[in-house]
């Protein structure tokens, strides 16, 4: 218990949770959009594959 900070001011003790690393801006931003990076990569791969597939199977203007 000796490694715990000593708070003499009651307001400082109540505000100490704000300095915890879980509440840092980097942690908040990284958990704001979970899976966003993977989704961007997957969507980009899909668009590229779709464009390659459509360019290899081009058909004329067919109207029904």
Our estimate of the beta-strand percent is under 5%
The number of helices is 3
Helix content: 40-55%
Average per-residue pLDDT, rounded, comes to 77
Give the low-pLDDT segments: none
Order of helices and strands: HHH
- Biggest β-sheet strands, sense, barrel: none
Rg, alpha carbons:
27 Å
Number of strands: 0
Structural class of the secondary structure composition? mainly alpha
N-to-C CA distance: 80 Å
Q: How would the global form be characterised?
A: rod-shaped
Organism: Amanita thiersii Skay4041
Main location: mitochondrion
Transmembrane segments: 27-49
Pfam families: NDUF_B12
In short:
With 64 residues, the chain is mainly alpha-helical. It is 52% helix and 0% strand.
Can you offer a commentary on this structure?
It is a single chain. The chain is mainly alpha-helical and 64 residues long. It has three helices and no strands. The chain has helices at residues 10-15, 25-30, 36-56.
Main features:
64 residues; mainly alpha; rod-shaped
What secondary-structure arrangement, pairings included, does this model have?
Blueprint: H1 10-15, H2 25-30, H3 36-56
Protein name: NADH-ubiquinone oxidoreductase B12 subunit
Membrane topology: Single-pass membrane protein
Transmembrane segments: 27-49
